[in-house]
Amino acid sequence: MAFDFNMDNKSFIQLMGNGVKYSVPKFQRDYSWREEHWEDLWSDINNNDNISPWHYMGYLLLQPDAKDVHQHKIIDGQQRIATTTIIILAILNELQVLINSGNEPDDNKKRQDAIRSRYIVFTDPISLQSQAKLTLNRNNNRFFRKLCSMDEPMFRNAKPSEMLMFEALKFYRKRIRSEITATGEELAKFVSKLEDKLFFTTIEVKNDLNAYTVFETLNARGVKLSTPDLVKNYLFSQIDKEENTQNEELDQLDEDWEAILSQLGRDGDFSRFIQVEWNSRHHPKTQKTGLFREIKSHIKDKNSACDYVKKLEKAAPIYAALENPDDSLWKDYEKENNEKISNSIKTLKCFSIKQPHGLLMAAYLNFLKEDFLRIAAYIEVISIRYNAICRGHPNEQEDIYNKIACDISNGILTSPDSIKDRLKDVYKNDREFIEYFELKSIKTQPEARYILERIEEYLKPNHKVSYARSTLEHILPKNPSDDWLEFFTKEVINESIYRLGNMTLLEKEENRKVANKLYSEKIKVYATSDYEITKQCAEHEIWNKDAVLNRQKWLAEQAVKCWRIDFE
By CB atoms within 10 Å of each CB, which of 273, 346, 433, 495 scores lowest? Predict the structure, then answer.
């Protein structure tokens, strides 16, 4: 999608001294920087002059007002701008101390007025009224105005974010007193240094749809931006479109939004979460680049926005639980079923499989717990067959899962059997599964261990493998001695080490005994192991390429029975 934006590098003085007013959308997050952030910024300003004459402050995502080119919304970067402004306020406060003490009061008043008019307020040439250069969100702006006017702020019922701003002001005033010569001239020099040293990359976008696209582009390139703030700002702007929503209702919506973020983290998985949640209810699947456009096309008023926030709030804990086999959500199941659901979720996590999340969210919201348990078990089997072993095409799989999720959400699929029937297209049959399994090499230890543990538990149902007491044993060691060349060529050694047939489970204490010993010594320990798959190793008289291949065929025969769906 094409979109209009302008990008430029600007110093702090170019940013704040250009006649533009900046406002943080009233529904964006509150001020949140803490001492570690204040300390980092102060250190960067003061301690790196010999290394670099300037300090890069990162991106500012701005949206000019369509009716007033001198008014910009700060879509991202408000924490940095607010904190830098607080440093200026700390300078103004220290100048006021000099004025009150009779230290060059006239000169310092002139300095104070000049700095204040450059960074804090400006006089409108038409109305001759003073206007703030920076306006914060609805929760913080009143308190921020008090700080800007240098009035004593009221702390009764102060919000945590307001106290953070006041603590930031005290922090910088203390640093200024201890590290800058306390004269008006030196304070003014420090401001001059600040205005030229701090550089920002500004990105100006024409509308919030373009802003969302820029957010996603920058996030894909590793620049962490607060996508939730942009989405929240749009939704809340629809909720308060007529600007008549009561504060109590807005406060409740704020709490609901924070509940969503507490499940997901502010940045982290949020972008993917809203895509997965949206696609679990809408077909065809919406790609990330078109997601915000789709949301805007469906949500155009208060009722639809409130309804969407409620849907996100219900889905967030489920999405978070799908990333955590030990999540409290699964504790609602009785012990035996809790282990089953945990195994299903553990499979997804171990192999970083995310394609089923939308389907599972829809199933959890629309089915009884016992039915969800069956559906999760189907997904576990398919995830091992299709993703972990056969490496099927994930996009094709996700398209099928998305359609199933939508049909669940829309009441078309109403039973686990109807869902099972639709999963046939992503179920790798026994022949294909065995063929891939027999050739499988896995270098990632958690993945190899997981497959072997599950096969062991299938062979010995009442024996739960203890992760703490077991290790992954490479029968042909990862660093074999030359003595192993009697059984393997160097080329075959490299091929064999990470084959599943060359791996087994072993008790930790036994693993220390066998270490890198030859198979003739290891076999005695394997034969007495408590693990069925390890005892099976001892059936081979020697350990060579054929033994690895034969054992892997045996493991494949167990795996095809361990992970299976009966479609008859």
Answer: 495
